[in-house]
Write a structure and sequence with these properties.
Helix content is 29%, strand content 32%. The protein is of the alpha/beta class and 351 residues long. The chain starts with a strand and ends with a strand. The chain binds S-adenosylmethionine. S-adenosylmethionine binds next to helix 7. The site of S-adenosylmethionine has 21 residues, from helix 7.
């Protein structure tokens, strides 16, 4: 039995815990915020099933814990930790054969803490030296290395772990075309999860941008039809490029989400990342845009259908939802920290 660390965007650990339980039957044994992520701990026989939890950004296997006092003696204790020796070599070997696995780097995730009398870089240097001592054939590469040892400082403990995922995992292999407002796939996964996917869903993203939410829905399992559009031709082009020939049947086109070319009650589930702040050019246009888009959402959703909306304009959205009698608020996930920006997810059902 190993302990794994799963990281998610702050605000999403509760939902990730639900997804973890639904997919693997496992429960998280604790969640702590460390810098710009929430770190969930999970005990499991194997790592493979945990990779199916789509809200997770990164996964690590725990190698050991070091108690911290805040004094510089911690650095010595860290250097002497057995976590950097046999456990690390075994965990690296278990990840499978890799030509260049002898290059390593150390990442320290620690909040600034008054009680700690040394800096993050001191912790990093102590860990690097310990690994170099324990594995004389390995080479330090601070830029990019196949072996990443992470230290998460959780309370007065340093959790030493080996990263099992890569950037490609959390970026789902990478988008062909990026745009600035593009959503992180793991947050799109949260929207899709909350839409409660069913095999024959007609699923809509009315403001799809680069298509992140639609792609995440496509990867989440079977569906009937994917529908998406954007009023920006460049966004539609990017979404089509990101899909390539995969994931049929689907229809992605340029449209105005205030006047969707879709029949009444023709959509089972909808999820979108509404534009906010300066993303639409004139912030004063947002209230009218949100009002008109919500009216279209209510029109195209079938009775009982679900709409999942992500926005950082919560006060505006709340006011407009109250005024829209056909949409009932089922659930809200508040205070998600999306790379420094606070946002909320609201789940609405069509009455
Ligand atoms: C926050 S972005 C969506 C980003 C997307 N989830 C992604 O990952 O790329 C909001 C999108 O709404 C689009 N938009 C703004 N007003 C619109 C309208 N009236 N009709 C359709 N799309 C609109 C913008 O062009 C932008 O692509």
């Amino acid at each position: 039995m190993n302990t794994y660390l799963l990281t998610v965007f702050p605000g999403l650990a509760g939902l990730a815990g639900e997804e973890l339980l639904a997919r693997t039957g496992l429960k998280s044994t604790g969640v702590k915020r460390v810098r710009d992520r929430e770190v969930m701990q999970v005990r499991s026989e194997a790592s493979r099933p945990l990779l199916d939890v789509r809200l997770v950004e990164d996964m690590f296997v725990l190698l050991g814990k070091v108690s911290l006092t805040g004094q510089t003696a911690d650095l010595k204790a860290l250097g002497a930790s057995p976590a950097f020796r046999g456990g690390l070599a075994k965990a690296v070997a278990e990840r499978g054969p890799q030509a260049s696995k002898s290059r390593f780097r150390v990442v320290v995730q620690a909040d600034d803490a008054r009680w700690r009398l040394y800096r993050r870089v001191d912790t990093q240097a102590a860990a690097e030296a310990a690994i170099a001592r324990a594995h004389p054939g390995w080479r330090l590469d601070r830029e990019e290395a196949p072996v990443e040892i992470w230290l998460h400082q959780v309370g007065r403990e340093a959790l030493v772990s080996l990263r099992l995922t890569t950037n490609a995992h959390r970026q789902r292999g990478g988008r062909e075309q990026e745009r600035t407002a593009a959503l992180r796939p793991t947050i799109a996964a949260a929207l899709v999860y909350l839409s409660v996917p069913a095999d024959d869903d007609v699923f809509l993203d009315p403001m799809c941008g680069t298509g992140t939410v639609l792609l995440e829905r496509a990867r989440a399992g079977r569906y009937g039809l994917l529908l998406g559009g954007d009023n920006d031709a460049a966004a539609v082009k990017a979404a089509l490029a990101n899909f390539g020939p995969r994931h049929q049947p689907r229809r992605i086109e340029r449209w105005d989400a205030r006047h969707l070319p879709l029949e009444d009650a023709s959509v089972d589930a909808l999820a979108t990342n509404l534009p906010w702040g300066r993303q639409i050019g004139r912030p004063e246009d947002l209230p009218a845009l949100y009002r008109d888009v919500l009216a279209e959402v209510a029109r195209v959703l079938r009775p009982g259908g679900r709409a999942v909306l992500l926005s950082s304009e919560w006060e505006l959205l709340k006011r407009l939802i109250k005024a829209q009698s056909r949409l009932k608020q089922e659930r809200t996930i508040s205070n998600i920290d999306v790379l420094g920006r606070r946002a909320d997810i609201v789940v609405l059902t069509r009455s």
